[in-house]
Prior knowledge:
Blueprint: H1 15-40, E1 42-46, E2 49-50, H2 56-65, H3 76-87, E3 94-97, H4 98-106, H5 121-128, E4 144-149, H6 153-164, E5 172-179, H7 186-195, E6 207-210, E7 215-218, E8 221-227, E9 244-248, H8 256-259, E10 268-273, E11 299-301, H9 305-320, E12 323-333, E13 359-361, H10 365-372, E14 380-387, E15 393-401, H11 407-420, E16 427-430, E17 447-450, E18 455-457, E19 460-467, H12 471-485, E20 490-492
Parallel strand pairs: 1-3, 3-20, 4-5, 4-9, 5-8, 9-10, 10-11, 12-14, 16-17
Antiparallel strand pairs: 1-2, 6-7, 7-8, 12-15, 13-14, 15-19, 17-19, 18-19
Helix pairs in contact: 1-2, 1-3, 3-4, 3-5, 6-12, 9-10, 9-12
Amino acid sequence: xxxxxxxxxxxxxxxxxxxxxxxxxxxxxxxxxxxxxxxxxxxxxxxxxxxxxxxxxxxxxxxxxxxxxxxxxxxxxxxxxxxxxxxxxxxxxxxxxxxxxxxxxxxxxxxxxxxxxxxxxxxxxxxxxxxxxxxxxxxxxxxxxxxxxxxxxxxxxxxxxxxxxxxxxxxxxxxxxxxxxxxxxxxxxxxxxxxxxxxxxxxxxxxxxxxxxxxxxxxxxxxxxxxxxxxxxxxxxxxxxxxxxxxxxxxxxxxxxxxxxxxxxxxxxxxxxxxxxxxxxxxxxxxxxxxxxxxxxxxxxxxxxxxxxxxxxxxxxxxxxxxxxxxxxxxxxxxxxxxxxxxxxxxxxxxxxxxxxxxxxxxxxxxxxxxxxxxxxxxxxxxxxxxxxxxxxxxxxxxxxxxxxxxxxxxxxxxxxxxxxxxxxxxxxxxxxxxxxxxxxxxxxxxxxxxxxxxxxxxxxxxxxxxxxxxxxxxxxxxxxxxxxxxxxxxxxxx
Length: 495
């Protein structure tokens, strides 16, 4: 049952006056969000949309976006008092969805009879987060040093994400990037690429170069730029870096032997690959199989962007309906391994101009599914079509299920999964008939389920899944990094 289906909002008598009131409340939320984040390591959300460093208008848009999941948007009149009540307590580190808490308080049916007195909002919020009040434990006993080996598309987005999530400094800390020197203006050019991005827009903060220290400073974070030609000849301790988590974004080394070179450098502890790993390497998809590695695993892979996008909905569907067989077709934005104009390429068809052609090619994501979800091993086929867009891709899941169903049942099931399940950080949900690929640039989920496109014929279902193959994937990698480092946040509401 949707939270708002029996809640018809009363139209304001004056839309402009209503807007100004809500705008003022959104403005008042910003210092409360900041205080909770920097002082308490509490990250606040509205139905999965993070509120940290959001503008007034962006916060208002986050409220409006709830209508894609529920039957109505949320109002600042409902969320502001929840946030204010949270800020009144000394809370321990957590991720708190104030939108869902507000919806539960104002709109969900309670089990009490009509004569029962409803708890005040302040008491209700205190009850919801009672386990956090007075909790002094930090996310980590000491900050985890992180080094980005390679500074391409994923590397720069990971840098942005790590800087954004620095908070009080008790989490993952970006200490350095490692690259091959590209010339006299190398430092300035790399800082500029961090600051400006043609797809994802400007960096949310300030970046300046300190050439004397061989670093750039991003939102107060000093990030050393280390020049090296190989991963095994760097002394990270000379830069004050110890027990570092190395994030290899190059894709040059994809097996244990190659990635193991990182561990020969002084000051390193673990390695994560932002590409599918080869051999017996564990390919980890956050939210799915991130409990299958432990401290003994020093080298793991975060799989591919497509694997991260398709595995969560495949698991959800398999859990509820069962998957007998299927075909996965990805419509993928072109990538840097293709040519801008026709030229030689070792891969079939990829030599043709990426901005001018749809290019049929293979995908390894389907094979990787079997490594992450063993019960689907051998049940799926797959292919890919590279298309002339720079970012955001789509996966079409053509599945034969073990039981008959219909469009309404599947859509409602995935809607609930996107809000009330352990996969809510991986699966987003949209019910708009007007969305196109560019609307999902910057999505932080592994994928977005398009409810309007669902096709069902008894036990045959065709599902359409959007995903930001750059930033959405980066967020998934970051979640795996937190798991590797031992970062664990309490989630509220818990389900």
